[in-house]
Amino acid sequence: MVVIKELLRHAHIGVTATVYAHVRLRIQRQALETLGVTLDYRP
To answer: From CA 13, how far away is CA 6, in angstroms rounded?
Structure first.
């Protein structure tokens, strides 16, 4: 996270964390959907 902060030149790491928290949630959701399809999950 610190490396990304420095590359993007954010003044505070909190800014970087906030931005990437949304990305991580989206990626997690996609991974769960893929796993559900792979396991043939039917709610």
So the answer is: 9
pLDDT(14) > 90: yes
Question: The tokens of 14 are what?
Answer: 């909190």
Q: Which amino acid is at 27?
A: I
pTM across the whole model: 0.47
- With helix as H, strand as E and coil as C, how does the chain read? CHHHHHHHCCCCHHHHHHHHHHHHHHHHHHHHHHHHHHCCCCC
Task: Please tell me the distance from the alpha carbon of residue 32 to that of residue 17, in angstroms, as a whole number.
Answer: 22
21 backbone dihedrals φ, ψ, rounded to 5°: -60, -40
Q: Is the pLDDT of residue 12 over 90?
A: yes
